[in-house]
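Below is a filled-in request sheet from our internal design queue. Each sheet records the structural input a requester submitted and the sequence that came back. We keep these sheets so that new team members can see what a complete request looks like end to end.

REQUESTER: design group, bay 2
PRIORITY: normal
MODE: inverse folding
CHAIN LENGTH: 491
BACKBONE (tokenized):
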């Protein structure tokens, strides 16, 4: 029930507090949503009571659905609502770039469809506008971004009680996979090494020295960070401790508005620690102070050209700056990480996005996967021979087990034929095991007793297998890496 009253207040006059009341009457009532409202009325009490009755009646009719409770919002131009929407995005913590981009996309649709008031909004006109934009050259993926922006705008109006429902709620996004205008590819390990080597030897361009670009690409390939995220990093964002190094991107700079903390390879952390020490940076300094995120593709294109790597391959796939993120995610998957681990490191909301868009495999990867399948059709004679070998090795053939003279010498080259010649080149393979065949025959009791300690007779040979220290001096077991290829050594 609405009530009419005069507002009482205290006013200081000549140092004394005097109680007073307003000249006009005020009305207290509950609106259609049940919210208590207080409205200033008139000096005349009878007129104020009539106004209170009118307000109460309108609220009752609105609750019954007879009167439009959003009448005042429908009279307000959409462009003014849009300005309030942009401010709400900023108030809830969105970046200026994100709020501005969303605002501009909604504004483009409103202007293109000539929507002025809420009554002008028609879903079919929005569909027509997006279809015409697509014919004019806009990709399906971009059209989906525009649709998402304007639907978010009307969802906000519903949440802010400016309209009752979203007029575009039934419009659906189109399948962007059918219209990929710019397909990216992942760089191979050879391309990565060539790119980093050429970059380090190059000259300054795009306001970055060769060392700065080298470090930028190295960090991008080891974290998968986007260009905007890399540009936001300060030295305080990097935890370069020897035990658990990591890198952090603040929530205001990530795509999902969540803080991102990714582990950092120790060799990469050492590389950045050395750079920090040598250059005398401050923790508050930007790691890449003059990196222009909008020029990342052009910068990388120039370094790719210097390395002899095509910016666009024969399949029309691009190797732009965002392809470094594709490269990171693809190689994480190839390293043996689970789908969940890959999704987490990629910071994707779904595993489908990680697998369908960012994971790239080639014929070599497919061949490796096929070769790892179990052998279903086997030669009978070879299978029987293999079974006899296993039975003999496990001691289940009712024969004495020869613990000293095992099949290690034969297993090593057969199991890893591509590693054995390099790993133990320059040595007699029989001596690497630690005991030669002749020594085994001359030693008493070695075949039946392990506690005699004869397996340790030539420790320097055993150490060679474990560390490869002596062989490294002759050329090394593997070429030097740039902090990334180690992750994907299985390739």
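RETURNED SEQUENCE:
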């Amino acid at each position: 029930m609405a009530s009419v009253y005069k507002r009482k207040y205290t006013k200081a006059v000549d140092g004394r507090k005097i109680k007073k009341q307003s000249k006009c009457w005020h009305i207290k009532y509950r609106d259609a949503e049940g919210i208590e409202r207080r409205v200033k009325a008139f000096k005349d009490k009878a007129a104020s009571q009539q106004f209170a009755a009118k307000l109460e009646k309108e609220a009752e009719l609105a609750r019954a659905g007879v009167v439009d409770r959003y009448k005042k919002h429908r009279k307000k131009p959409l462009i003014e609502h849009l300005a309030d929407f942009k401010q709400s995005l900023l108030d809830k913590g969105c970046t200026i770039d994100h709020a501005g981009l969303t605002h501009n996309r909604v504004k483009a649709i409103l202007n293109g469809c000539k929507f002025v008031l809420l009554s002008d909004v028609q879903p079919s006109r929005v569909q027509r506008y997006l279809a015409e934009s697509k014919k004019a050259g806009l990709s399906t993926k971009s059209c989906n971004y525009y649709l998402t922006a304007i639907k978010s705008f009307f969802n906000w109006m519903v949440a802010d009680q400016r309209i009752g429902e979203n007029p575009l709620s039934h419009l659906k996004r189109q399948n962007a996979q059918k219209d990929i205008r710019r397909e990216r590819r992942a760089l191979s390990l050879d391309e990565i090494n060539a790119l980093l080597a050429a970059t380090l030897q190059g000259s300054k361009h795009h306001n970055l020295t060769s060392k700065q670009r080298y470090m930028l690409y190295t960090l991008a390939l080891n974290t998968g960070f986007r260009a905007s995220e890399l540009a936001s990093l300060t030295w305080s964002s990097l935890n370069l401790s020897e035990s658990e190094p990591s890198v952090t991107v603040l929530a205001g700079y990530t795509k999902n508005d969540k803080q991102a903390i990714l582990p950092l390879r120790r060799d990469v952390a050492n590389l950045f620690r050395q750079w920090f020490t040598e250059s005398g940076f401050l923790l508050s300094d930007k790691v890449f102070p003059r990196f222009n995120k909008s020029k990342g593709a052009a910068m990388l294109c120039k370094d790719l050209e210097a390395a002899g790597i095509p910016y666009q391959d024969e399949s029309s796939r691009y190797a732009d700056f965002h392809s470094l993120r594709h490269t990171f995610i693809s190689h994480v998957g190839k390293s043996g990480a689970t789908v969940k681990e890959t999704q987490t490191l990629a910071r994707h909301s779904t595993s489908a996005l990680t697998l369908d868009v960012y994971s790239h495999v080639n014929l070599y990867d497919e061949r490796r996967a096929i070769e790892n399948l179990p052998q279903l059709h086997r030669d009978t004679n070879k299978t029987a021979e293999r079974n006899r070998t296993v039975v003999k090795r496990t001691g289940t053939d009712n024969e004495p087990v020869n613990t000293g003279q095992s099949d290690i010498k034969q297993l090593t080259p057969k199991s890893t034929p591509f590693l054995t010649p390099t790993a133990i080149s320059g040595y007699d393979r029989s001596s690497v095991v630690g005991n030669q065949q002749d020594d085994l025959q001359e030693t008493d009791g070695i075949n039946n007793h392990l506690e005699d300690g004869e397996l340790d007779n030539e420790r320097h040979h055993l150490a060679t297998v474990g560390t490869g220290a002596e062989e490294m001096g002759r050329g090394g077991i593997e070429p030097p890496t740039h902090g990334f290829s180690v992750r994907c050594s299985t390739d």
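SHEET NOTES:
- Confidence is low (pLDDT under 50) at residues 403-480, 484-491.
- The longest strand covers residues 16-30.
FILED BY: M.R.
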